[in-house]
Design goal:
The protein is an all-alpha fold. It is built from 4 helices and no strands.
């Protein structure tokens, strides 16, 4: 568990939005959309493969996608 600091006005707005949910649940819901976004995936690829340009990351993402499509399940 980590502690984060936010401005009072941001806390007030988030409190109004979250309803009965915990802040963790609220943030998790907000991040679900971000995790599916292209910028998030590119940033993730950069951490896995080291520092890449955006073009390099996109190429790597295409190669990975192609490899996954070509994989066969062995029983």
């Amino acid at each position: 568990m980590k502690t984060i600091m936010i401005q009072d006005n941001v806390y007030k707005d988030l409190s109004a939005v979250k309803g009965d949910k915990s802040f963790s649940e609220l943030f998790e819901e907000m991040l679900e959309n971000v995790r599916d976004s292209k910028p998030y995936k590119i940033a993730l690829l950069k951490t896995i493969f080291g520092t890449m340009s955006e073009e390099e990351a996109e190429q790597a993402e295409r190669r990975i996608k192609k490899l996954r499509q070509n994989m066969k399940v062995r029983v």
